Amino acid sequence: MEPTRRSYGLAFTALIALSLLTLGLSFVPLGGAGIPLALGIAAGKAVLVALFFMHLVEQRAVNALVPVVVIVLVALFVGITAGEVAARQDPRDDGARRSASEAPR
Amino acid sequence: MNDPRVHVQFDSFEAQTHAARLGMWLFLASEVLLFSGLFTLYASYRAHDPNGFAEAVRHSRIWLGTAMTFVLLTSSLTVALAVHATRHGRGRAAGGWLLASLALGVGFLCIKGTEYAAHVREGALPGVHYHSATLPDPTANVFFTLYWLMTGLHALHVIGGLIALAVCGVLLRRGRIGARHPTPVELTGMYWHLVDILWLFLWPMLYLMR
Predict the structure, then answer these.
(1) What is the spatial distance between Cα B18 and Cα B91, in angstroms, rounded to a whole number?
(2) How far apart are the C-alpha atoms of B53 and B161, rounded to whole Å?
(3) CB distance A42–B51 less than 8 Å?
(4) B80 to chain A: which residues are within 8 Å by CB?
(5) How many CA atoms lie within 13 A of B83 on its CB side?
(6) 20 to 30 Å CA-CA from A3: which of A28, A101, B49, B171?
(7) What are phi and psi of A74, to 5 degrees?
């Protein structure tokens, strides 16, 4: 089913609303939850763009396999690489993790 | 069946169109993998020094970044409407929406240029050329190097997309694209929406996550 112009308008409104939400939340001290929340909302917006603007809703289902697989691969790539960096410990002290800005220079 | 639009290897116009769309999705996937290298660098360096990164993000121009987000989102809408108009044989409307998309894309690049100029004045340049007085921290140097690389690569993609949209406009005027041949506009639209999606991640990463 080809999206109607109304569908495009609704998707656009949702995208603007989610963007305003992300902007507003960036001013709220959320601690560790801030980053996953911002990226999660971004992912939700990407899904809206892919489904409606990029016409995934009307295309054959197999097309959706491509972005889904790519997302999994990118998640592995970013997650494992950054996760390794985050899990590093300084062997000089008791093994407690320190941010590079706190480490002795 | 004798549909003249269908190339010999396809059973039908629908099969041919599907192949074109799937091929485009695969190309877009390769573009995502290209950017994922930079995203991984960002995530890794941020994991290494989260405080330094957050401090650097606090110095980015949040309102320029937000303006660029709204400009690109609107351009995605106008591109989608251009494709819709093309499919329904409304060539003049399609041309108008394509023109609006081009204007918005150029607007995005103008805002980006303003921002780049400000960073150059402050000395927030990539790599060894970094010499910011307000943010002397080496982590800020890393952040801005990534900033220039990521937004620069993205801007190149915006320029490529604008060229493709302009070509679609020309072909539309010449009657080579229309209700019976909408696929080129559709594929160009998919590329443009990817450019928008990439920015939807760059915006929080470079401007909001403080």
Answers:
(1) 23
(2) 31
(3) no
(4) 3, 8, 52-53
(5) 26
(6) B171
(7) -65, -40
